[in-house]
Predict the 3D structure of the following.
Amino acid sequence: MKSPRKIACAALVLTSLVCGSAVGGQNPGPLPATPAQGDQAKPPAAPPKSQTTIVTTTTEVVVPVTVKDRNGNLVADLKKDEFRVLEDGVEQAIREFKTDTVPISMVVLIDNDLKLKDEQQVEPSLVSIIGGLSTSDEAFVCRFDQFFHEGKGFTKDQDKLVTELRRTELASRTSAPAPGDPFSGPTINGAPAPGAPQMNDPSLRAIRGQPTKALDDAVYDAAILLKDRDSRKRHKIILLISDGQNGAKFNTHKYEEVREELLRQGITVYCVATGSSYFDRKFNRLVSYAHDTGGDIFYGAKEDTFSEFYSRITEEARNQYTLVYSPRGDSKVDYHTIEVRVRRPGMTVLAREGYYGGTFASVPQK
């Protein structure tokens, strides 16, 4: 008779053989460790969400239009059927035509780095900007040089605007480096230091004349301030007062990028060029901004002309025609040209010459 101990050992051997045959005769290896009480197994990591691109195309284009006669006077009696709108050369049906007076949202962007003579003409003229504004208009006063100096925000309160404009003091300095820069050598009280070597290489000294103003960045920042204003309910404009000098290496935004932002928002830029910019022919950037956005440019030579220009600009912005159409043809997300024509002869038409037809947006898939 077998002892109970031998029977138990035989049973254990039999069990091991059965388990081995269940896994194909291979050793299954150690069993996984059981988590200690209170520990929780980590859930498996969720697979990364892939990105999908959503394309939004433009279904409605709003085009503010200014029309002048041969003498530069505004023409305010045109009818809908006297206008034609072409997009990429394809004529469009004007769905809405408005001549109602629309309130203005304006950023007054003032050059803070003018020549002394220009500054003496511009600074006292600024308060006259109020003369062209109505109680339903709003303005935001800003300055710029190498940096953008944001003002106190949009306000319709004309008393506050008068106070802010009267207190606006321009820097009255040039864009050239101060004495003592690496190209002129060390100075004492503004004069060359005794015995100090002077660097008279013309190729190096030419750098001193380069402007340090970031005009493109300033216009871009001004456009961002207007971003939440509804272009169907308000005319969004930038009144840019500058000599037009622009230091390319001091800008983080290129002209094309700034123009795209202006056109996407339907912002019109009106420029007042200071006297020296006219004589020095340094206003090309101002012409580009006004031309590409359907605005206008005026050249100031003395204080009273600046005041007159401000009134003309607000009058133009307030008395624009508004044409609305739904694009037909290629609705690709890209730049589309716009041409506005008037059937009445002898008219000058100011309107933006294009727009960007939509946006791309990347969003995670669910």
Q: What stands out?
A: Residues 4-41, 172-185, 199-208, 359-363 have pLDDT under 50 and may be disordered. The chain has two domains: 53-99+323-364, 104-174+204-318. The chain is about 25% helix and 25% strand. Residues 142 and 150 are 5 Å apart (CA to CA).
